[in-house]
C-alpha cells in the first residue's frame, strides 16, 4: 500500500506507485478505517473528533500524506535508520516527521496528546514487555481516541498458549480490556480500539490490574523511562475528543483549561500575524528570485515556492502556525516547545498542529538537511540563561537546515549581535534588521549557502 518508487522528473523527485494502485489503495484503506469507527467516509474524521494522528513506522508516508489532504495533521515517527529512513523520506515528501522510538523510553509528548495512533505493520510486538508499549499508547491517546492496528492476524496471536487452545481473545485483546479500551471493529487485518472516555473506569477495575500513576509521575514525559502505570486520569485535560470545538482557534474556556490567559493568547497571535507579514515581505524577493511574484499574487507552488516546512524553535502558543494557515501559505510548521519553558505543547496539539518537546542543549531528532526555514523568537535569551552553548545551537541549526535555507531570529540586541558574529564563522549570510518599534528587539535573517566558500 505504501510501497513507492522515487523517480526524477524534470529535476524533481516524485513518488509513484509500483503498480499504479497505491494511491487508490491508501484512499480505500482510509475509508475503511472511517467506516469501521462508524463514519460515512474519511472526510468525516473531524466529526468523530480526529484531527491529530501519530503514525508509528509510517513507511513512505502515503497514509499521512492522504490524511494531510483531508486537512488532518499526521506526524510520522520511526526509529533511526542508517539507510532507507522512513522519517527522511516523509520529510522529503513534505510531511511532518521525527525520529523516535519508545522501546525503552516515553516519546517526547505529554499525556493525552493525540486523537488517533496508527500502526500498519510497524514492526512493534505490542504484547511484549508486559504490555508497556500499549500503556504508552494509552498515555498518548486522548479520551475517546482510537488505536488503529493493521497487522496479519497470525502476528497478533503469535505463539501464546491461549491462541493454541483456540481462545477467542488474543493477548493484545486481553490486555486492552485491562486498560479500559473497547474493540470497536475488526476487518481483514485491521483492528480498531477506542480508549474510554470515563476516567472512573480505571479505578473501578478489578484488583491486580495496571496501577494508576502517582501524582507528579505523569508530569514529566521528555524521554522518561516507560512506566507501568495509567496516566492522565486526574488531568484537567481529560476531555473526550468528541466534545472539543471543531475550529483551530480555541475558545476562552478551553484556553483557561490550559492555564492560558485569553488576552495573552490573542496578543501572541496578533504579534505572529504581523511578524509573518514582515518576514514574507523581506524574504519574498529572495525566495522567489527564480519565479518573479508581483504584490498580491498567490505564492507559487513547489518547486518555485522554496519553503515547504518551517520549524518554530520556540513556539509559545503556536501563533506562527496559525498565521501561516490564515495567510494560506503552503507550508507546515513543526512547533517545538523547549523543555525548560512553560509547557504549551498540549495547547498547540489541541489546535491540531504538529509539535514536540525538545531540549535545545541537545540535537533535534531529525536527519540532516530536512527543514527550509528555522524561526525562533526569544530562544537565544532563554538558552543563554540556561547556560547552553549558542555556538553548538547554531551548528545544530546548520545541520538541520537545507542548503539555501533560511533562519529568522528575533531577540534582544545583545544575543542577536553575538549570533550574527558566530553566523559569519559558519559561512552564513547574515544581516540584522532594526524593527524600529522603540524596543531593543532586533531581527536576524540568515541564509545557509549552497556551497561554502
From TrEMBL:
Places the protein is found: Endomembrane system; Membrane
InterPro entries the record matches: Put_SAM_MeTrfase, SAM-dependent_MTases_sf
E.C. number: 2.1.1.-
EC main group: transferase
Principal place of residence: membrane
Topology term for the membrane: Single-pass membrane protein; Single-pass type II membrane protein
A single Gene Ontology CC term: membrane
Alphabetized Pfam families for the sequence: Methyltransf_29
GO biological process: methylation
Entry keywords, A to Z: Glycoprotein, Membrane, Methyltransferase, Signal-anchor, Transferase, Transmembrane, Transmembrane helix
GO molecular function, one term: methyltransferase activity
Keyword Transferase: yes
Similarity comment text for this entry: Belongs to the methyltransferase superfamily.
Name under which the protein is recorded: Methyltransferase
Naturally occurring in which organism (per UniProt): Davidia involucrata
